[in-house]
Amino acid sequence: MLSGCTVDLLQPAGPIGEGNRDMMVLEWAVMMCVVVPVIIATLIFAWKYRASNEKAEYLRNWSHSNKIEVFIWGVPILIILVLSGFNYWSTHYYDPYKPISKEMLAKVGAPNAKPLRVEVVSLDWKWLFIYPDLGIATINELDVPTKTPLDFRITSDSVMTSFFIPQLGSQIYSMAGMETQLHLLASRPGNYQGEAAQYTGPGFSDMRFRTIAMPQEQFEAWVQSVHNTENPFVAKEALDAQTYPKYQAPPAVSNEVAPKPAPVLYFSNVQSGLFESIVAKYNVGNNAHGKDSKPMGDMPMDTHSDSQMAAPSNTGM
């Protein structure tokens, strides 16, 4: 009856996801060291000191025991120390801003793999993925090669939410005018669910996307297909400062009908610097990086033609 049910967090498809799972299982095991003995002791005490058991010892003048005090205080303190140690180590080892380590790459058999950069923008109620080194973008579908480090830069052009691919690993917040980072890796091919992990309004339940991990050769073929204007999923226009507002706009919302999920869409040409302009438009006049912030409409247009569909050497493709 439960054959169709899955627990994505316990079925990882990458080293970060495996680390998250191992930490959850380890912490669960430590907590069971408290829960199981307490349950057993409760049952034993209830049976031994039941009203009908006249042989049970009754110490009417008992008031204190040093052994019991040491036990009930010492065990929780020990557990807190153990959990604190595990959490401190894992927080630093799996820091989302920390690039995928050579150790993790060697574990999946790709010690020299170059990272793929992906810029993520959360919208109402959809996800925009920009591949700056490939000159393409997608909506509500994230296609990535396996055994390749994924370097995400994440922002929001709406309310705050959380970017999460449970089987690949850590979630991180997406906030307007700010940029967060996340580094993941898919160790095997698969079709994994991605989602917004924080409520964002009436379209929240459909703010999901598919993460399709595929071998390197298949990913390169997919990139070629996105550059093919005959592909029915490819938009007929470039994604730039002029067309972006149309795709950024949320669907119509009524009190009776929930907004329809945004369809999957590909863009074969993307304006260079679009991600930076989305972040900067919330910081005009308050640039913390010491550079002149430009409104989106002032960003220069630099789209990639079909002849530029091959990735530069620093993408590993």
List strands and helices in order, with pairings.
Blueprint: H1 15-48, H2 66-93, H3 102-107, E1 116-123, E2 126-131, E3 136-139, E4 141-145, E5 150-156, E6 161-165, E7 169-174, E8 180-184, E9 190-196, E10 208-214, H4 216-226, H5 244-248, E11 265-267, H6 274-280
Parallel strand pairs: 1-5, 4-10
Antiparallel strand pairs: 1-2, 2-3, 3-11, 5-8, 6-7, 6-9, 9-10
Helix pairs in contact: 1-2
- What topology, given as strand order, has the largest sheet? 8-5-1-2-3-11
Largest sheet, strands/sense/barrel? 6 strands, mixed
What helical percentage do the residues reach? Answer: 25-40%
Structural class: alpha+beta
Oligomer: single chain
**Overall pLDDT, averaged?**
84
The fraction of residues in strands falls at 15-25%
What count of helical segments does DSSP give? 6
Pfam families: COX2 (PF00116), COX_ARM (PF06481)
InterPro entries: CcO_II (IPR045187), CcO_II-like_C (IPR002429), COX_ARM (IPR010514), Cupredoxin (IPR008972), CuRO_UO_II (IPR034227), Cyt_c_oxidase_su2_TM_dom (IPR011759), Cyt_c_oxidase_su2_TM_sf (IPR036257), Cyt_o_ubiquinol_oxidase_su2 (IPR006333)
Domain Cytochrome oxidase subunit II transmembrane region profile: 1-98
Membrane topology: Multi-pass membrane protein
Describe this structure in words.
- By secondary structure, the protein is of the alpha+beta class.
- 29% of the residues lie in helices and 20% in strands.
- The chain contains six helices and eleven strands.
- It has helices at residues 15-48, 66-93, 102-107, 216-226, 244-248, 274-280, and strands spanning 116-123, 126-131, 136-139, 141-145, 150-156, 161-165, 169-174, 180-184, 190-196, 208-214, 265-267.
- The strands form two sheets. It has a six-stranded mixed β-sheet with strand order 8-5-1-2-3-11. A five-stranded mixed β-sheet has the order 4-10-9-6-7.
- The longest helix has 34 residues, at 15-48.
- 29% of the residues are buried.
- Mean pLDDT is 84; it is low at 288-294 and 299-317.
- Residues 1-98 form the Cytochrome oxidase subunit II transmembrane region profile domain.
- It is a multi-pass membrane protein.
- Residues 288-317 are annotated as: Disordered.
- Residues 289-305 have a biased composition (Basic and acidic residues).
